[in-house]
Specification:
Layout: H1 3-8, H2 11-20, H3 23-45, E1 53-58, E2 64-67, E3 72-77, E4 82-88, E5 91-96, H4 103-106, E6 116-119, E7 124-129
Antiparallel strand pairs: 1-2, 1-7, 3-4, 4-5, 6-7
């Protein structure tokens, strides 16, 4: 079961690693690993701030703002028909939508600042916003 582990991390492999590296090399490798773990935790796991409100866009209309603290069901008339959106306990999701694939419904609850779900065939988009800065997962020039 652990043959690959024993193959790569046996006593001879560690002796070769010790022979090829100095103490300074091992310190730099350890610091790089600690920095990598810290960056992952800080920017990927710990960066999700809760949202305060949702913006809902329908086709080419101006977005409408909805407070996430008010539990409600919102009916939105899109390009294909009516989408039903639910707001509950600081979260929001698509309940029903006339699109064929239903990806917007399967996306589930949105809770964090900057999250977006869109029903492209029905031209309805939901984006969560808050007072904090948005966290980007990528930037294109």
């Amino acid at each position: 079961m652990y043959k690959w582990f024993n193959h790569y991390f046996n006593h001879n492999t560690l002796l070769k690693f010790n022979a090829l590296t100095t103490v300074a090399d091992r310190i730099i490798i350890a610091l790089a690993f600690v920095l990598l773990v810290w960056l992952y935790v800080h920017y990927w796991i710990g960066s999700f701030e809760s949202a305060d409100y949702a913006l809902i866009w329908v086709a080419n209309q101006a977005p409408k703002r909805f407070d996430l603290q008010d539990d409600q069901r919102i009916s939105v008339q899109g390009y294909l028909g009516e989408s039903l959106i639910e707001v509950k306990a600081g979260q929001i999701r698509f309940l029903t939508s006339p699109c064929q694939s239903q990806y917007c419904i399967h996306a589930g609850w949105l809770t964090h600042n900057g999250e977006v779900v869109a029903c492209l065939p029905n031209q309805v988009t939901i984006q969560l916003r808050g007072n904090e800065n948005l966290q980007f997962d990528s930037i294109a020039y």
